[in-house]
Amino acid sequence: MKDPVRVVVTGAAGQIGYSILPRISKGDAFGPDQPVILMLLEITPALTALKGVEMELIDCAFPLLHGIVCTDDPMVAFKDADYAFLVGAFPRKAGMVRADLLAKNAGIFKVQGAAIEKVAKKTFKALVVGNPANTNCLILAEHAPSIPRKNFCAMTRLDHNRTIGQLATRAGCTPSDVEGVCVFGNHSASMVPFIEAATIKGKPVREVIGDDEWIAGEFIKTIKTRGGAIIKARGLSSACSAANAAIDCMHDWICGSDGKIVSMAIMSSGKYGVPEGVFYSVPCKCKDGEWEVVELDASKQADALKATADELFDERKTRLSDYIFDPMIADAR
Ligand code: NAI
User: Fold this and answer.
1) Are 15 and 237 in contact (CB under 8 A)?
2) pLDDT of 168-188, one tens digit each?
3) Would the ipTM clear 0.90, i.e. be above it?
4) How many CB atoms lie within 10 A of CB 234?
5) What is the SS3 assignment for 314?
6) Which ranges does the record mark as transmembrane (predicted)?
7) Residue partners of 292: CB distance under 8 A and separation at least 6
8) Residue (of 73, 70, 62) closest to 34 by Cα position
């Protein structure tokens, strides 16, 4: 039996937390032979609810679950951590503009990044789910300068999976028949679902669907507005599909994507015309715990790719300079 890995889940008493914890404990993220110790971080008022979640996890008697720590202290949660799902975030409230949301969350991810820097393992890897995920991920990485930036990723896998789900439904095939889709950019309305290199049962998507008008119109709109449509129908935001996407993303990153293209928002590096400095979703393949960017021909979408990059640079520049250009962090780098 392998030694257990320490897996942090922030916002563990929330909706996504409730869906994701049994999946991690069952081996869906790190493999069927990898024991885990769950390090669950919540805000103080949610600790009682978290206790209830802990009781249920104990009652599941998962063989791979070798321990549970519940805390409201990031320094305890991230101590010797191997991996983290950063789900907890401050929700948008009535009257808040996006800039307020960014600033509020920047404070949370700054504190958690600083704790990671001090107490997590240097091989630590983090997937940021809490919104605005791309910019929260940037702040987290900036405050943990001794952890390689390639070890941070923001989640766009839900958008990726939604793209597959819509194509499979339209084509009347199963999701596993659809390969090679990806989503570029920010996890926001500016994202760019990309299907030009994708296939259904080995044939080009456009050929199988045979309806360019649907692809340019309803299909793209459905992907971009799916979160809102789920809130409207369910009265609550997506939780089971978000948790599933987080599991898929972490699993493929750590255990390998089996040669398949997946979407991951990783630190930009000049590829696809996006200079270094933001967490930007690109097509990747993963092997042995590392991702590699796949180069597809997206030249026809260049304007849309730039627009979603500009949005991320704007988030970085206009609201967050206090958090990102902290001289103490710059010195430590
Ligand atoms: P929720 O409101 O049910 O749960 C969030 C939990 O985070 C709460 O229990 C809250 O107490 C906790 N929390 C807040 N601040 C915290 C802090 N500083 N430290 C630790 N815990 C903290 O929300 P839900 O539905 O679980 O969603 C969580 C986040 O995931 C939201 O920001 C949501 O927008 C985002 N999301 C992202 C998606 C993506 O594709 N990237 C998809 C769906 C949701």
Assistant:
1) yes
2) 999 999 999 999 999 999 999
3) yes
4) 11
5) helix
6) none
7) 284, 285, 286
8) 62
Q: Whose CA is nearest to atom 40 of ligand 1?
A: 158
- Does the pTM surpass 0.90? The reply is yes
Query: Does residue 127 line the site of ligand 1, with CB under 6 A?
Result: no
Cβ-contact 139, 108 below 8 angstroms: no
Task: Give residue 291 CA to ligand 1 midpoint distance, Å.
Answer: 25
Residue 333 pLDDT exceeds 90: no
Cis status of the peptide bond prior to 132, with omega within 30 of 0: yes
Query: Which of the residues are catalytic?
Result: 187
The per-residue pLDDT for 320 is 56
* 10 in contact with ligand 1, CB cutoff 6 A: yes
Distance 128 CA to ligand 1 centre (A): 10
Distance 243 CA to ligand 1 centre (A): 11
* Among the ranges given (59-68, 119-128, 163-172, 224-233), the one the predictor scored with the smallest mean pLDDT: 224-233
